[in-house]
């Protein structure tokens, strides 16, 4: 039964509240909880909740549910037939004195909760009903650890994406189609099946209904709002909460609330703003705790928390920040360890100041650094493997985060080495993405070089049709492989463009790394990079080296820079800035028909990390290590 509009709707909405029923109640999250009188032995499992615009009850143990009229019918007038019991229950509720805070409301509250509220509440009830009928929503919720009964406490529902059944449902409530289009103005924009959840303001009035994709591959819009409205009201906001806890996802907030943790709100994966904090303070907040999922870019996350701290300080709010361990969420923490552990974590976390925040972040980073080190077995490389350079992989423990300068004698071999390393990295590491920035050669030449290396033929061969059909077939398959790398977002080749300077490069790479943390960048022709800042440095090599260090520190990924060095009797000479600032220098030299690669570093312990002999395919020019003779 969705709602008995004829007998009890007006009474339940305007006059009744579970506290008027005369039974012991306790606050549990945003709901009320009591012992269930409908099964024996009685357990504290009966929830009273206002998810559909009026109060209902549901026992999570025996499954008893209904509105307050039905609760009174069963608890007080159980011996009567249903029509007589209903009449007595309505009469009983109608004679109750309304609670003080349920008396005459301000006119603006009534105005806000008028026609729009009616439309949105009907949408919530319809989706609530549809969730009970939909196997896909039940499967999705079960995978998240939720039963349909638990979901109903919060008005979680299901929308198939087809508006017509909902329109028919609304017609029975006297709501016309133009009202639906006006207040649910995004309903026709999204036609994928979604889990729905009503969003209420601190007065309990619905201001929007959010939809979350069931299948996240169906659309780039995982979360949508079906009704335009304020986006700065924290989800699950409640009045008279002095210590709200701010989380990111709505399942984080709902799971914590279901566990009885009071005042947990969500930003719905939006950036926390001053307006969010202002609304929390208006609801009684004296301190705010922000719990975040660990991001790959720890430095960026730290800067963002510092911004939150300053915003809270502006509003005279005490502030705490907690960054969860990798891949942990509030949802998982509460389900795995219970509410008490999360509350204990919040309680033990020190209130942030600029000093204590830096200290807590440093402590977390030290622990994470230790956990990462101890999580890597002795026989596994820390960095990315190179299958055609096995000894190099072993000596440097894989390609790790760093700034590496690559040069050669003769100079042209450095591009061949960079191309060989690029292809090896992509083929050896299926989760890695590589961006090859070609500042010395047109992008098409890079295509030809990679295809040639894939099939073991010369670059000239792949540029036109061969008389040998088998060669043409190999070119076709290698081209498909190259296109697959691009299509699967594992390879991009950028060339020089107007306005392509270090500032644009940093912006583009930051966007890339948000999507894929496992990123390697190769800049072939660093001597040609445009530099748009650091004009205080007169030497162009100093300026380029400084901006590359800025890139490396901001991104913390492996970066290979191809440029020119000169070999003299005293060793490698050239742009001193690169020699000084690089984590390692890859020097390839051809002597007596053989090629020798050395990797030197002054930052990682020994000066010479690696020395090996390389072979080069006479047709494709692909390089690899020569096998050592036993």
Notable features of this structure?
single chain; 630 residues; alpha/beta; 5-stranded antiparallel β-sheet; 19% strand; disordered N terminus
| Anisotropy-based shape | elongated
Which strand-content bin applies to the residues?
Answer: 15-25%
Number of strands: 24
Whole-angstrom Rg:
32 Å
The stretches of 5 or more residues where confidence is low (pLDDT under 50) are 1-14, 101-113
* Overall pLDDT: 86
Looking across the biggest beta sheet, what order are the strands in?
16-15-17-18-14-21-22-23-24
Category from helices, strands and their pairing: alpha/beta
Please estimate the helix content: 25-40%
Q: Major beta sheet, specifics? A: 9 strands, mixed
Distance between the termini: 81 Å
Can you count the helices? 22
Overview of this protein structure:
Strands 16-15-17-18-14-21-22-23-24 form a 9-stranded mixed sheet. The model is unreliable at about 1-15 and about 100-115 (pLDDT under 50). α10 packs parallel to α13 (about 330-335) and α18 (about 445-455) packs across α19 (about 470-485). The protein is of the alpha/beta class. The chain contains 22 helices and 24 strands.
């Amino acid at each position: 039964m969705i709602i008995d509009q004829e007998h009890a709707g007006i009474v339940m909405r305007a006059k009744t509240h579970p506290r008027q029923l005369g039974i012991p109640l306790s606050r549990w999250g945003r709901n009320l909880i009591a012992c269930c009188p409908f099964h024996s032995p009685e357990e504290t499992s009966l929830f009273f909740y206002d998810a559909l615009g009026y109060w209902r009850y549901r026992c999570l143990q025996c499954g008893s549910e209904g509105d307050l009229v039905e609760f009174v019918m069963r608890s007080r007038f159980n011996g009567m037939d249903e029509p007589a019991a209903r009449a007595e229950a309505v009469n009983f509720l109608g004679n109750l004195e309304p609670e003080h805070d349920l008396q005459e409301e301000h006119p603006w509250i009534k105005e806000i909760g008028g026609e729009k509220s009616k439309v949105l509440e009907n949408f919530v009830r319809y989706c609530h009903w549809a969730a009970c009928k939909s196997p896909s929503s039940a499967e999705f919720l079960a995978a998240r650890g939720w039963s349909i009964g638990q979901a109903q406490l919060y008005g979680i529902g299901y929308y198939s994406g087809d508006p017509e059944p909902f329109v028919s449902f609304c017609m029975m409530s006297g709501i016309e189609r133009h009202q639906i289009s006006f207040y649910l103005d995004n309903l026709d924009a999204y036609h994928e099946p979604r889990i729905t959840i009503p969003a209420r303001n601190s007065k309990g009035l619905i201001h929007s209904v959010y939809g979350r994709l069931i299948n996240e591959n169906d659309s780039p819009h995982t979360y949508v709002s079906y009704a335009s409205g304020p986006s700065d009201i924290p989800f699950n906001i409640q009045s008279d909460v002095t210590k709200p806890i701010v989380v990111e996802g709505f399942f984080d907030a709902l799971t914590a609330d279901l566990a009885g943790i009071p005042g947990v709100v969500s930003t719905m994966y939006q950036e926390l703003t001053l307006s969010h904090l202002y609304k929390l303070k208006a609801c009684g907040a004296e301190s705010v705790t922000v719990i975040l999922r660990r991001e790959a870019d720890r430095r960026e996350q730290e800067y963002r928390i510092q911004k939150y701290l300053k915003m809270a300080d502006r509003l005279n709010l005490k502030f705490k920040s907690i960054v969860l361990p990798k891949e942990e969420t509030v949802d998982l923490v509460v389900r795995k360890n219970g509410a008490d552990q999360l509350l204990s974590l919040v309680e033990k976390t020190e209130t942030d100041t600029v000093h204590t925040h830096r200290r807590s972040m440093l402590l977390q980073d030290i622990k994470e650094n230790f956990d990462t080190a101890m999580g890597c077995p002795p026989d596994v490389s820390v960095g990315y493997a190179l299958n055609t350079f096995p000894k190099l992989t072993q000596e440097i423990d894989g390609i790790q985060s760093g700034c590496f300068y690559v040069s050669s004698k003769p100079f042209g071999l450095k591009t061949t080495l960079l191309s060989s390393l690029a292809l090896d990295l992509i083929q050896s590491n299926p989760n890695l993405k590589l961006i090859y920035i070609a500042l010395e050669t047109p992008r098409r030449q890079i295509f030809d070089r990679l295809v040639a290396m894939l099939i073991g033929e010369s670059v000239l061969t792949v540029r036109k049709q061969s008389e040998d059909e088998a060669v043409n077939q190999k070119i076709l398959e290698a081209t498909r492989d190259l296109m697959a790398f691009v299509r699967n977002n594992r390879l991009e080749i950028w060339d020089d463009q107007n306005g392509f300077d270090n500032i644009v490069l940093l912006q583009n790479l930051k966007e890339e790394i948000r999507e894929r943390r496992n990123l390697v960048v190769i800049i072939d022709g660093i001597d040609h990079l445009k530099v748009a800042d650091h004009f205080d440095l007169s030497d162009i090599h100093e300026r380029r080296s400084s901006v590359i260090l800025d890139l490396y520190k901001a991104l913390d990924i492996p970066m290979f820079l191809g440029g020119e060095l000169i070999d003299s009797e005293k060793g490698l000479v050239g742009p001193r800035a690169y020699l000084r600032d690089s984590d390692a220098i890859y020097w390839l030299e051809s002597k007596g028909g053989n090629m020798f690669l050395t990797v030197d570093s002054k930052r990682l312990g020994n000066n010479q990390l690696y020395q090996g002999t390389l072979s080069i395919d006479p047709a494709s020019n692909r390089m690899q290590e020569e096998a050592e003779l036993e």
